[in-house]
């Protein structure tokens, strides 16, 4: 179910009502209804769409609460200073799961996400469960039907489980098993978070992966080159971040906390190498769970990721 953006989330301290150099994001945001919007030919500004869904996490036997992630992140993002001066910043609201199959909600999210991708220079899709990535893929394939898609995922998990129904742990297997024109790169993998069968599947499918301890404190030239070559080899890049890749000391409010995860600056460092590419068609951030957060640390961190990614 689609719901429009909530202006009540977008509040903060006003430093000036007239000087744009002192504006925060809540002073520049606009709202629009995707169900009534006509896509124009020219891409402009930034669009945001939330995926207020944690049904996939529930089906994956995780701790629920991430459906409140999009609103919590938007609320924190609203308070940050508008430094990018982008042409426009539009909150399109959220997609929610009410009943029925998760796949139907993913398809609805995909349809609306495709509209945002066509309309904007940057598209941010905010979860909710990481099953948002399958909707992101469907949208990307719709917009770029013949393109080779490179999926870059900063995550502690492969999320390639062979479950019979879609969950927050199956989406990349769903993609790779049905689309030969996609490839998958995972950065920040937790050695203790993936079974041997998932490694076997990764080797079978040629999945490229880098462990979390290879990214700590400094991203080596070898890994930077690996990321840049992956981007070069594909027509368009679908970029996604699961907040559970970040160590729980910095991101306690996630669906599956990491005890040997990445530091936030490591995520910023490697992400900047991805974001600066013009091939990035969309960015998703998943698994922020406000129910388990401490002083909004994780929501603030996710909001700052988006803030730093604005170009």
UniProtKB/TrEMBL annotation:
The keyword Cytoplasm does not apply. It is an enzyme of class 3 (hydrolase). Binds 2 manganese ions per subunit. PROSITE patterns: ARGINASE_2 (PS51409). SUPFAM superfamilies: Arginase/deacetylase (SSF52768). Keywords: Histidine metabolism, Hydrolase, Manganese, Metal-binding. Its cofactor is Mn(2+). Pfam families: Arginase. Mn(2+) 2 binds at residues 155, 157, 242, 244. Gene3D superfamilies: Ureohydrolase domain (3.40.800.10). The keyword Iron does not apply. Transmembrane segments: none annotated. It comes from the Bacteria. Its EC number is 3.5.3.8. Pathway: Amino-acid degradation; L-histidine degradation into L-glutamate; L-glutamate from N-formimidoyl-L-glutamate (hydrolase route): step 1/1. InterPro entries: HutG, Ureohydrolase, Ureohydrolase_dom_sf. Mn(2+) 1 binds at residues 130, 155, 159, 242. It catalyses: N-formimidoyl-L-glutamate + H2O = formamide + L-glutamate. Catalyzes the conversion of N-formimidoyl-L-glutamate to L-glutamate and formamide. PANTHER family: ARGINASE/AGMATINASE, FORMIMIDOYLGLUTAMASE. Belongs to the arginase family. This is Formimidoylglutamase.
């Amino acid at each position: 179910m689609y719901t429009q953006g909530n202006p009540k989330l977008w509040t903060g301290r006003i430093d000036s009502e007239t000087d744009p150099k002192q504006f925060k994001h809540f002073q520049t945001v606009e709202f629009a209804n995707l169900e009534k919007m006509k896509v124009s030919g020219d891409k402009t500004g930034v669009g945001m769409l939330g995926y207020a869904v944690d049904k996939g996490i529930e089906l994956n036997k995780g701790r629920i609460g991430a459906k409140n992630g999009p609103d919590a992140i938007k609320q924190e993002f609203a308070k940050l200073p508008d430094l990018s001066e982008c042409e426009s910043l539009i909150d399109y609201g959220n997609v929610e799961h009410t009943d029925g199959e998760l796949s139907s909600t993913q398809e609805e999210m995909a349809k609306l996400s495709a509209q945002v991708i066509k309309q904007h220079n940057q598209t941010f899709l905010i979860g909710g469960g990481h099953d948002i990535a399958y909707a992101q893929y469907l949208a990307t394939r719709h917009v770029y039907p013949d393109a080779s898609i490179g999926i870059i995922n900063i995550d502690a998990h492969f999320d390639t489980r062979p479950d019979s129904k879609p969950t927050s742990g199956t989406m990349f297997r769903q993609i790779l098993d049905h689309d030969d024109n996609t490839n998958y790169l995972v950065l920040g993998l937790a050695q203790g978070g993936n079974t041997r069968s998932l490694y076997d599947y990764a080797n079978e499918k040629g999945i490229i992966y880098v462990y979390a301890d290879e990214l700590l404190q400094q991203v080596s030239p070898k890994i930077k080159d690996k990321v840049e070559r992956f981007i070069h080899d594909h027509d368009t890049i679908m970029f996604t971040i699961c907040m559970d890749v970040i160590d729980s000391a910095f991101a306690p409010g996630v669906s599956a906390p990491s005890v040997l995860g990445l530091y936030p600056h490591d995520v910023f460092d490697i992400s900047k190498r991805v974001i600066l590419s013009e091939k990035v068609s969309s960015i998703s951030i998943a698994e922020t769970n406000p129910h388990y957060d401490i002083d909004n640390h994780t929501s603030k961190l996710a909001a700052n990721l988006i803030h730093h990614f604005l170009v």
